[in-house]
Specification:
Order of helices and strands: EHEEHEHEEHEHHHEHHHEHHH
CATH superfamily: NAD(P)-binding Rossmann-like Domain
Number of helices: 13
CATH topology: Rossmann fold
Structural class: alpha/beta
CATH architecture: 3-Layer(aba) Sandwich
Helix content: 40-55%
Domain NAD-dependent epimerase/dehydratase: 3-172
Strand content: 5-15%
Strand order of the largest sheet: 3-2-1-4-5-7-8
Number of strands: 9
InterPro entries: Epimerase_deHydtase, Lipid_A_modif_metabolic_enz, NAD(P)-bd_dom_sf
Protein name: Nucleoside-diphosphate-sugar epimerase
Shape: globular
Pfam families: Epimerase (PF01370)
Length: 330
């Protein structure tokens, strides 16, 4: 089977190409950057290029995007061109080519301000029912691209699955305060509790989505590691996350003490992936509990795929204030 992966030089794109090739798919990797996983160098904003790449393709995995770290360095129009117009080009050509499955990698960032708790209120339980309130151009354009996917399913019958993925990058956190207080490994393991998915699990979700797209037709799913928390924990999570976790998974305490690690003071949201687990038969392996067991055994708290993909640069230059020139108010 011939499949197209956009953003093949990126984290998820590379991981998809690696996995699909290992499963003997014929993989076309599309990206503006040359890489070992890119077979076609060009932009999704070029409709003629996209049409050329779509010939004979049965599945499309659309991971190419401008990300949150680009908000400060790229214009609003850049985001619209890549995230909206580029997605439109892909949808048009996929529909014309009779593609059997279009899987769009969206982001939990579309929820934006909807994930901010009220003052003194509980953490937010983030499910597919939460109404997005994007807070920056990244979220706005990802949501617009989702709506285009829905339109092409409605009007052209293109099977489209939208996966709102949580964090899976290995780079240091984009918030200076997190970088200064927590080691990178510490903060990443903390995030498995509420806002992280391992890239190997993310790849599995994408392939399952493609396999089921024809039957499902159209749907949106949150893709994040299964959390040990419940709705009853939300008030205390936003006040004293460590206390809640000590009740739920007390084994973590000694593991953290041995490494000089800390749990976040507060957890203000919990991404809930129950619907994806049920409807896609997706079974995320890399959870906080799994990470603790790995650390006990002296093993990495991330997958072999995450170690293979490693870190990547979002920009061609470095910045004095850290890995990303992120204005945290945007």
């Amino acid at each position: 089977m011939k499949v197209l992966v956009t953003g093949s030089a990126g984290h998820l794109g590379e991981a998809l190409v690696r996995t699909l090739k290992n499963r003997n798919y014929q993989v076309l990797g599309l990206d503006v950057k040359a890489s070992n996983f890119t077979t076609h160098v060009g932009s999704i904003t070029d409709s003629a290029f996209v049409k050329q790449c779509m010939s004979g393709v049965q599945w499309v995995f659309h991971t190419a995007t401008l990300h949150k770290p680009h908000v400060v360095t790229h214009s609003l129009q850049d985001f619209i061109d890549t995230n909206v117009s580029g997605t439109l080009n892909l949808l048009q050509e996929a529909s014309a080519a009779g593609v059997a499955a279009f899987v769009f990698t969206s982001s939990t960032s579309v929820f934006g301000d909807a994930m901010v708790p009220e003052n003194g209120g509980p953490a937010v339980w983030v499910t597919e029912e939460l109404v997005p309130v994007p807070k920056n151009i990244y979220g706005v354009t990802k949501l617009a691209a989702e709506n285009l996917c829905q339109l092409f399913h409605r009007n052209q019958g293109l099977p489209c699955i939208i996966l709102r993925t949580s964090r899976f990058f290995n780079e240091d956190d984009d918030q200076k305060g997190i970088r200064e207080r927590y080691s990178n490994d510490n903060s990443k393991v903390n995030e498995y509790l509420f806002r992280r998915v391992d890239i190997e699990d993310a790849v599995a979700a994408h392939i399952l989505a493609a396999q089921r797209a024809g039957k499902i037709g159209f749907s949106k799913y949150i893709i994040s590691a299964a959390s040990p928390f419940s709705v009853s924990d939300l008030v205390e999570l936003n006040e004293n996350a460590a206390a809640v976790l000590q009740r739920r998974l007390p084994d973590y305490v000694q593991v953290y003490q041995d490494r000089g690690w800390e749990m976040f003071d507060q957890i203000d949201r919990v991404y809930v992936s129950d619907l994806a687990q049920k409807e896609l038969d997706w079974k995320p392996r890399y959870t906080f509990g799994f990470a603790i067991e790995q650390l006990k055994a002296g093993e990495p708290a991330k997958s072999p795929m995450a170690l293979l993909v490693g870190t990547k640069s979002y920009h061609e230059t470095t910045f004095s204030e850290g890995p990303y020139p992120v204005n945290e108010g945007r």
